[in-house]
Amino acid sequence: MSGALSHIRVLDLSRVLAGPWAGQTLADLGAEVIKVERPGSGDDTRHWGPPYVKDAQGNDTREAAYFQSANRNKQSLTVDFTQAEGQRLIRELAARCDVVLENFKVGGLKAYGLDYESLKAVNPRLIYCSITGFGQDGPYAKRAGYDFMIQGLGGLMSLTGRPEGEAGAGPMKVGVALTDILTGLYATVGVLAALNQREQSGLGQHIDVALLDVQVACLANQAMNYLCTGRSPKRLGNAHPNIVPYQDFPSADGDFILAVGNDSQFGKFCEVAGLTALAGDSRFSTNKARVANRDELIPLIRQATVFKTTAEWVQLLEAAGVPCGPINDLAQVFADPQVQARGLRVDMPNSYGGVTPQVASPLRLSATPVQYRNAPPTLGEHTAEVLQRLLGLDSAAQAQLREQGVI
């Protein structure tokens, strides 16, 4: 079957994570995605190792695992667009594409004639998505933006980490570059919306996506807690600001998560845990009361949970209809029967004769399912094919460009 976006061609000028994540999502949905990279070096993340992908003999290649996380189903084209001939190639490709993705600093591509207005002149139907740290305007627009920095500036780290007064207290970033990932997903949504609108107008448009905007938008209920009260939420570790008990608890062999979402579930938990008196206690009988009295309730629960193993708690609480779960490391994640049943690991043959493991797309479309067509490409793997197929450049013309260092 053809993918849902098999009629769409994307020119991906982005690098590192946010832009490439958007490009990979579009590629997974069937779009033809041409990743433009610098000759000789390519995307910075190709070198962000170890670890590296293995070849047929099990030896490390030069391809970092980081790069592999965001670049499958793409074609790699090397072009030096600081040169006039390279700029010409990019403009000619943009004329034949539906979407351009880029994450250069504001105005960074204008000097090369590759900004939105310049490419719009050669392709009025072009959808041009710019991903930056702070957006196209405002006092910070010229600044570079990085996930870690944005997690701090955008408030996420003020909410993440152990509370003041506890051992290990202090702000903490999320364990993956979550702001980059969310920005890539918002960029994808914007591209899909613009493609849909183009069906009515026949025209493309410019999409301005900023890491800071995305981070603030994704503060969700915590942002609303602040806006409604004027008080900044504090770090609660693994606890929830609005629901109690909703956090990690110690077990006989580790820790587990208890996620009580309503008063009925709290009563069921108390029955299983032998804490029935707590369910009828006016300090704890409603969620509002439990939030107000969490400092009294949590120690009482912790005293009870240490007498059973995590597996025992999960079995008992699931049977009672109380949400709970283990805290897995990644080895346990990929060994989990549900993860395996959903096929969340995909092994793809790579250009080195080995296999590149991938995390499957979470998108499940019944009529146009995601297809895993090719592993993340080696640097410049598709340069000759793309230039011949789309621009009609024969081997002699390409040889001249190669001699000039353009490709």
From TrEMBL:
In Pfam terms, one family for this protein is: CoA_transf_3
- Record GO terms (molecular function): CoA-transferase activity
Transferase among the record's keywords?
yes
User: Any idea which UniProt keywords this protein has?
Assistant: Transferase
Presence of the UniProt keyword Transferase in the record = yes
Where exactly are the transmembrane stretches of this chain?
none
Matching entries from PANTHER family are given as: SUCCINATE--HYDROXYMETHYLGLUTARATE COA-TRANSFERASE
Mind telling me what this protein is named? Answer: Crotonobetainyl-CoA:carnitine CoA-transferase CaiB-like acyl-CoA transferase
